[in-house]
Q: What sequence folds into this?
């Protein structure tokens, strides 16, 4: 785990880092960060608790505990990663552990938006490509260079075209993934919309 | 691409702008907040020196962390106390309506908003909770959001989102006696899988859906997210309108007529285009129980836990994990599985009709020895109504504990937890590893009626055996 945490800011197009592979489908956000750690009013201390129950059950053999995965920043997962609860604590915990990007077969919707909102790009690859990467990591360290401009990931042995929602890709390239300021720019349109909605009139005292 | 569905109409109505990159800026008509996913959002507002844009379009309550035994303040759990205190402070500072404990209106956010009439057809509803899909039962477009999006809604009353595709799930025929909405939705998730809904809104329709009460419809929409769909909805009809009528926050007098007229116009057109349509035969649904660690791993009460051979190649890995974790063997019947804990409650099945059904099954029965069973009403209002009907007495006489409202053991953020590898029969929505507070605890999801039957027998049982006598 990184001792000093610097959240991503602004535009970026490249992420280079060591990969960590986590095998399994439908890994839910309760597993990523069990509910007892949600009793907090900020996200600061979550990094050390990521996968707490799974790690305890595997007694040091969980990928997030292996010495060989120390310093890894690109997480490789299978399908429907992050299903379940909407807790942003899940990607926050992953990010604070050191994860900067995730490559997987597929992601749950809310988890995906949460990742994008805090600056973790999530890419998809075919089941087969993920298998190739996970097998590779079983044998040796994999350092991937992710290029958002070209939507690809490469190492000295491997090269993949990554899929990412165009909206998300543009947000990272332009640095506008922190949405609040962008949304507020349309303040006039927002106020007009409020006045136009039929139900606002039906429920005047709401 | 879908056309002329309720989803399309409501989405278009709330679209504020097209954002660069292809997503839409969507106005949120009703924003619900609670103590777990909002503090960091308020913190972010402060960091950015922003105010809440429309404070009267956000409503707060407290549900996840509240103790259900002793609710006197300060809470025994310091962290829980800190969280409720932070919510109180934030609501006060930003002038947000807060239904606190003792107000008569507190409870699980997805139980409270409908019972107050806040939830109405045609609205967009967002909340930092994945079970926000519940509100879709009224023909609103409702979905869970993360804390960054809670911040966005507070600051702008809008979020950036890509439009979802729409899958219609047409449920033919009717549910048989002793089969409930929970069985139907577990059956649907099992049929389609837990990831089929990714990128989709689910429209539940057909005779089996029309026949359901509003509370049953909430159970269905609530679990859309367990099938991967962030949003699930049902077209509004007379049942919807009569449920809303005369609620505290519903349109009154002349406004009522205007409202219903508008609500009628929102229904999906007869010739709507869907991205996908799936048919389900509701008459084939059996009392359904989960055996694994995802809500999709379920079987009918008389079926056996499937072997790896019977499982789709894509689902074999998680099935293997489920056998290991649950300690169940393929081929083993689910019926007669011994139970340690029974839980009736949650945003899925903690409403008055759920309590009525469970109480009816209990009748004069006592729960089996060594079973720890408790009822956690979904809201203060549900609790009050249940007491007025004497349901609390039925549960207490049977040996259940009667608790104060909250989320409780659905996610075990308070002191209601499984111990060790206990098995629970639970009316909640998730059977994930560790979900009910013990890292090795095991959850079997089922209808509240089935939980009551399990409590009496001390093992998984067919509720129809109790109803037919």
A:
């Amino acid at each position: 785990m990184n001792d000093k945490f610097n959240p991503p800011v602004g535009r970026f197009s490249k992420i280079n880092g060591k990969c960590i592979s986590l095998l399994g489908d439908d890994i839910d956000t309760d597993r990523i960060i069990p509910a007892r750690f949600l009793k907090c009013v900020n996200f600061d201390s979550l990094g050390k608790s990521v996968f707490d129950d799974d790690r305890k059950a595997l007694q040091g053999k969980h990928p997030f505990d292996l010495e060989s995965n120390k310093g890894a920043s690109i997480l490789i997962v299978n399908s429907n990663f992050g299903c379940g609860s909407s807790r942003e604590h899940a990607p926050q915990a992953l990010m604070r552990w050191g994860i900067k990007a995730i490559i997987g077969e597929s992601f749950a919707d809310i988890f995906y938006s949460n990742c994008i909102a805090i600056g973790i790009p999530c890419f998809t690859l075919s089941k087969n490509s993920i298998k190739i990467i996970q097998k590779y990591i079983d044998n040796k360290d994999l350092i991937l260079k992710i290029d958002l401009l070209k939507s690809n990931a490469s190492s000295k042995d491997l090269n993949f075209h990554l899929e990412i929602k165009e909206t998300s890709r543009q947000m990272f390239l332009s640095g506008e993934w922190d949405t609040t300021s962008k949304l507020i720019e349309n303040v006039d349109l927002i106020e007009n919309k409020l006045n136009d909605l039929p139900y606002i009139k039906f429920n005047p005292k709401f | 691409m879908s056309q002329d569905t309720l989803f399309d109409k409501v989405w278009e109505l709330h679209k504020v702008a097209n954002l660069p990159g292809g997503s839409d800026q969507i106005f949120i008509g009703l924003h619900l907040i609670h103590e777990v996913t909002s503090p960091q959002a308020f913190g972010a507002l402060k960091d950015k020196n922003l105010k809440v844009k429309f404070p009267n379009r956000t409503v707060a309550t407290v549900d996840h962390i509240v103790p259900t035994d002793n609710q006197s303040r300060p809470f025994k759990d310091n962290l829980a106390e800190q969280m409720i205190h932070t919510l109180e402070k934030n609501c006060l500072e930003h002038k947000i309506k807060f239904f606190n404990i003792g107000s008569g209106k507190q409870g699980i956010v997805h139980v409270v908003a409908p019972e107050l009439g806040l939830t109405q057809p045609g609205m967009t509803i967002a909340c930092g909770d994945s079970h926000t899909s519940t509100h879709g039962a009224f023909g609103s477009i409702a979905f869970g959001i993360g804390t960054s999006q809670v911040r966005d809604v507070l600051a702008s009353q809008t979020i950036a989102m890509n439009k979802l595709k729409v899958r219609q799930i047409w449920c033919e025929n009717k549910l048989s006696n002793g089969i409930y909405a929970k069985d139907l939705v577990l059956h649907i998730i099992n049929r389609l899988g837990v990831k089929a809904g990714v990128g989709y809104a689910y429209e539940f329709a057909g005779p089996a859906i029309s026949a359901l009460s509003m509370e049953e419809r909430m159970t269905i929409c609530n679990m859309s997210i367990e099938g991967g769909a962030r949003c699930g909805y049902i077209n509004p009809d007379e049942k919807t309108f009569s449920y809303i009528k005369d609620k505290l926050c519903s349109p009154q007098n002349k406004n009522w007529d205007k409202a219903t007229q508008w609500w009628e116009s929102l229904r999906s057109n007869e010739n709507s285009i869907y991205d996908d349509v799936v048919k389900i035969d509701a008459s084939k649904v059996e009392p359904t129980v989960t055996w694994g660690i995802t809500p999709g791993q379920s079987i009918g009460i008389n079926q056996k836990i499937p072997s790896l051979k019977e499982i789709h190649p894509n689902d074999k890995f998680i099935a293997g994990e489920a056998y290991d974790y649950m300690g169940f063997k393929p081929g083993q019947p689910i019926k007669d599985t011994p139970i340690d804990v029974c839980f009736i409650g949650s945003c899925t099945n903690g409403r008055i009709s759920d309590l009525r059904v469970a109480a009816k099954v209990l009748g004069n029965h006592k729960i089996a020895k060594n079973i720890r069973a408790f009822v956690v009403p979904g809201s203060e209002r549900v609790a009050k109504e249940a007491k007025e009907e004497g349901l609390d007495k039925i549960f207490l006489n049977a040996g259940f504990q009667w608790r104060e409202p909250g989320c409780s053991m659905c996610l075990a953020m308070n002191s209601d937890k499984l111990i060790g590898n206990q098995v629970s029969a639970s009316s909640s929505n998730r059977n994930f590893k560790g979900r009910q507070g013990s890292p090795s605890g095991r959850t079997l999801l089922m209808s509240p009626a089935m939980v009551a039957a399990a409590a009496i027998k001390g093992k998984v049982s067919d509720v129809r055996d109790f109803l037919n006598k």
User: Anything to note?
Assistant: The mean pLDDT of chain B is 97. The CA atoms of residues 146 and 261 of chain B lie 34 Å apart.
